[in-house]
Structure formats: structure tokens, C-alpha cells
Write a structure and sequence with these properties.
InterPro entries: ADH-like_C (IPR013149), ADH-like_N (IPR013154), ER (IPR020843), GroES-like_sf (IPR011032), NAD(P)-bd_dom_sf (IPR036291), QOR-like (IPR047618), Quin_OxRdtase/zeta-crystal_CS (IPR002364). One of its GO terms (molecular function) is zinc ion binding. By secondary structure, the chain is an alpha/beta fold. Helix content is 30%, strand content 27%. The chain has two domains: 175 residues, Quinone Oxidoreductase, Chain A, domain 1; 124 residues, NAD(P)-binding Rossmann-like Domain (Rossmann fold, 3-Layer(aba) Sandwich). The protein is built from ten helices and 16 strands. Helix 2 crosses helix 3 and helix 2 crosses helix 9. It starts with a strand and ends with a strand.
Length: 324
């Protein structure tokens, strides 16, 4: 018998339950993984609340690191004893031990700790596809990244600086402004008291930026469009303030023939080759020191309810890891 956080209904953090579960032997294409560290992401709160539906009753969480205990038939990607990490797949990373499709597991290379891998898989691979594939940022370009002191933001802004970009970041407080500046942002806008679009235009000499990365959603969407130069790309990849209100797509033409995309990591890592290449890129920039993953918050897995309260209450900065 082992333990896991389980959901029997969607709702507030109080619906999270620490329960005994039975984990059997891995079946066809599966591996059994004993977790050493579990990552926490804002999408977990969307799934818990019901904004993003998942099977209930069931598990929660999509990111972790651990050791392979056993593999089922026809598994060749990993073997017992391998240190592995993953992001995605069926919800259930909030657990001590679990069965998981082996094809989503990637080896953790030497020089990367389990805790780091658990904290960086989802956020790091998200940053990778955003700045290297959705819009391949080039040296000398100015870009706007919302929530620059968040988990994805801290990774992406360091990476963008290493690419030679001028990073403009938004944050919600002076404390977070200092953190963002220390992690790659050349310019930081405190959105609670500054007009973001106006400041972006001032910083760019009236030109605007070629791309905006926006995980905030409803509260920032329209002003983000005003930050773009003609033919610019709006990358909406989250809804921390709520879903974007439906709008007339004619706005895109009025504001300069803009482009809009709503990408997901799952699409960018559909094939095993894409998954391995994306993870390798993330681990490489960490080992090269271009991106430093700072785990600022550590909790026991049994305390997941408090983790969600702190996350939704904006009391966290950067990466969060839970220990089974």
C-alpha cells in the first residue's frame, strides 16, 4: 500500500485528499515509478477546480521525477533503476508511486538533480517551445513576457537573455520586480500601477514588440495586443486571471494584422523524437549554467492543500517541489 493525493470532486483546495492507494504491476507499455520529487504547476489548480476537466475520482498532477522500479512488456525507452522525469500523461504525479506510460519518461542526465528535474520539466519544456519554436526569438529582439517572476517566466527570461534578446517582463509587485531583474529581465513593468502597453512603447521607441508571451489571460489579453508591432504574434498560453473574453477577430486586423496562437506543450511533444529533443534542450541550458532553477518553496506531498492555497494566493515565486 502506498499513498497519493486523490480527487473525488472538483472544487477548492479542500477537495484534495491524502489516501491509501494500491499500485500493481506495470502492464503493456507501462513503467512503475517511485517518485523522489513532484513538481507543482498552475494548471494543477485549473484541473482541481474543474476549469480544465479531468477524470474524477482520480489523481492530480502532471510532473515529477523518480526511479523506475519495474517495466511492463515491450518497454524499451527505460529500464529498472533509471532516474527519469516526465511532464504530461494521465494526471497522477501527486503520489508516492504510480504506473505511467513509459514513452513519456525521459532519462535525467548526470549533473541534474531529481528535484531540479521535477521542478523544470513542464515549465522548462514550455519555455523551450515558446521561445524556440512558437516564435524563434533572435538576438537583438525585444520581447514581452508576462508573469516574469512565475515558474515559466523565471526560466524563459533567463533563456531569452542567453539568446541575446531584450526582455521586458511584467510582475505584480516591487518584490517580484527585483526577482525578475535578477533573472534576465532588462526592463520590468509593475502591472498593478503602470500602463503596460504605454511602457512597452516607451521602451521600444514606439515600435512595439514582435511577440508577447501571455499566461495571465483575461486581465492582460487586450493590452497585450497593444504592445505588438504590426504583424506581431500574440502567444496566449495560460489563464491565471481567468479565460479570455470572446472578442471580434477584426481587432487583430485593426491593431496591425496581428497573429494569435494558443499553443500547448502536448502538441509540441507529440512524438518521442520531439519530446527527447525538447527535454535535452532544457537539460542542456541548465547544465551550461544559462538557466538556473531556483526551488524557492518545498512542501511535503501530504500538504498539497496548502500548496494550492499558497499558489492561488500569489504567495509563491518560481518553482515549487513536493517531497513524497
Amino acid at each position: 500500500m502506498t499513498k497519493a493525493i486523490r480527487l473525488h470532486a472538483t472544487g477548492g483546495p479542500e477537495v484534495l485528499r491524502w489516501e491509501d492507494v494500491t499500485v500493481g504491476e506495470p502492464g503493456e507499455g507501462q513503467a512503475r515509478v517511485r517518485h523522489t520529487a513532484v513538481g507543482v504547476n498552475f494548471i494543477d489548480t485549473y484541473q482541481r477546480s474543474g476549469m480544465y476537466p479531468i477524470p474524477v475520482p482520480g489523481g492530480l498532477g502532471s510532473e515529477a521525477a523518480g526511479v523506475v522500479e519495474a517495466v511492463g512488456p515491450n518497454v524499451t525507452a527505460v529500464k529498472p533503476g533509471d532516474r527519469v522525469a516526465y511532464a504530461g500523461g494521465p494526471p497522477g504525479s501527486y503520489s508516492e508511486v504510480r504506473l505511467i506510460p513509459a514513452h513519456i519518461l525521459v532519462p535525467i542526465p548526470d549533473g541534474v538533480a531529481d528535484e531540479t528535474a521535477a521542478a523544470v520539466m513542464l515549465k522548462g519544456m514550455t519555455a523551450q517551445y515558446l521561445i524556440r519554436r512558437t516564435y524563434a526569438v533572435k538576438a537583438g529582439e525585444a520581447v514581452l513576457f508576462h508573469a516574469a517572476a512565475g515558474g515559466v517566466g523565471l526560466i524563459a527570461c533567463q533563456w531569452l537573455k542567453a539568446l541575446g534578446a531584450t526582455v521586458i517582463g511584467t510582475v505584480g509587485s516591487d518584490e517580484k520586480a527585483g526577482i525578475a531583474k535578477a533573472h534576465g529581465c532588462e526592463h520590468v513593468i509593475v502591472s498593478t500601477r503602470e500602463d503596460v502597453a504605454k511602457r512597452v512603447k516607451e521602451i521600444t521607441g514606439g515600435a512595439g514588440v514582435p511577440v508577447v508571451y501571455d499566461s495571465v489571460g483575461k486581465d492582460t489579453f487586450l493590452s497585450s495586443l497593444d504592445c505588438l508591432k504590426p504583424l506581431g504574434l500574440m502567444v496566449s498560453f495560460g489563464n491565471s486571471s481567468g479565460k479570455v473574453t470572446p472578442f471580434d477577430i477584426g481587432i487583430l486586423s485593426q491593431k496591425g494584422s496581428l497573429y494569435l496562437t494558443r499553443p500547448t506543450l502536448a502538441t509540441y511533444t507529440t512524438t518521442r523524437a520531439d519530446l527527447e529533443a525538447t527535454a535535452k534542450d532544457v537539460f542542456d541550458v541548465i547544465r551550461e549554467g544559462k538557466v538556473k532553477v531556483e526551488i524557492r518553496h518545498r512542501y511535503a506531498l501530504a500538504g498539497a492543500e496548502q500548496v494550492h492555497r499558497d499558489l492561488e494566493g500569489r504567495r509563491t515565486v518560481g518553482s515549487i517541489v513536493m517531497t513524497p
